[in-house]
Amino acid sequence: MYELIKRDGLAKRGRLHTVHGVVETPVFMNVGTAAAIKGAVSTVDLKEIKTQVELSNTYHLHVRPGDETVKKLGGIHKFMVWDRPVLTDSGGFQVFSLAGLRKIKEEGVYFNSHIDGRKIFMGPEESMRIQSNLASTIAMAFDECPSSVATREYMERSVQRTTRWLARCKAEMARLNSLEDTINPHQLLFGINQGGIYEDIRKEHAQQIVEMDLDGYAVGGLAVGESHEEMYRILEETVPYLPVDKPTYLMGVGTPANILEAVDRGVDFFDCVYPSRNGRHGHVYTNHGKLNLFNAKYELDSRPIEEGCQCPACRTYSRAYIRHLLKAKEMLGMRLCVLHNLYYYNTLMEEIRAAIEAGDYKEFKRQKLSDLANPLD
């Protein structure tokens, strides 16, 4: 059940009650594609850095170790030793990202595994069954994520097929949740709005999927090549057609500035690989922009990554030491940067929630964006 606590303009302060605990929104979901955050981050670490939701990927876990294996081991929560909510992406994004390895048909998508080349078929029912075996808290509907430069004709056909697939997902999810051997019979289902940068297709699709009365709604197919301005425009046109009393999830986004802008347009769920991916390359986020710790100017810098930050890296280590670890290719350097970045994102969401509750989100956003654009170094 989603509880809308406060609105400040279009910004939403909410609370999603799930079988695996409460999610305070707006929330950033920490991405652990293969049931682990890249960068040697454990689930014990995730609790220390204030993670609310961990996100894993249906396609990748189906390929390795296999969803049946995870089910035999008690589901993804027992498998990775995590007792808070988990969202599983449906595998639909791999329809986009593995374009050279797949064929899309009405029944579903035929893949060649990116690991060993073996043939894989995934349609709406298969995606729901895999996610049911994983026993995640929230399952995402199986969709096609078309290219942002797809023609209008292709986009219309794709979105219509995604709508048909969503109806099949909902029916199969209801069936799976009724079975005696289902690990999580309370699994939630979020539908996905598509339509690229075509406003009218987005609006029509939003209206169609809202009629299906799902547990939440995502805006997909953004941050895949269009400009930030186009993304914000599509959110402004689309989000008002999604229910305010359900979670609104912007998939795969993004930078701190992206999140601040999207919250102001009514979005309250986010995920992105940026904090972990950038951290693994020595790029760390601060309230005054991003730092590259490989830069020589940090060689003798005894300050933490960010003054006042309470993450495991900043509480103990200096920029100079972390830079040394990165240069020496010591895994600890990468790990500390990832921990810092995820802590930064999770703390940013705390600050956003507080600003909405206080009724001054616009001013908070203005000041935060100004700070991010003005590095201290």
TrEMBL record:
Xref: Pfam families: TGT
Record key words, sorted: Glycosyltransferase, Metal-binding, Queuosine biosynthesis, Transferase, tRNA processing, Zinc
Catalytic site: 89 (proton acceptor), 271 (nucleophile)
Keyword Protein transport: no
Binding positions (substrate): 89-93, 143, 194, 221
GO molecular function: glycosyltransferase activity
Region (RNA binding): 252-258
Entry's cofactor comment: Binds 1 zinc ion per subunit.
Taxonomy, superkingdom: Bacteria
Subunit organization: Homodimer. Within each dimer, one monomer is responsible for RNA recognition and catalysis, while the other monomer binds to the replacement base PreQ1.
Family: Belongs to the queuine tRNA-ribosyltransferase family.
Name recorded for this polypeptide: Queuine tRNA-ribosyltransferase
Name of the gene this protein is made from: tgt
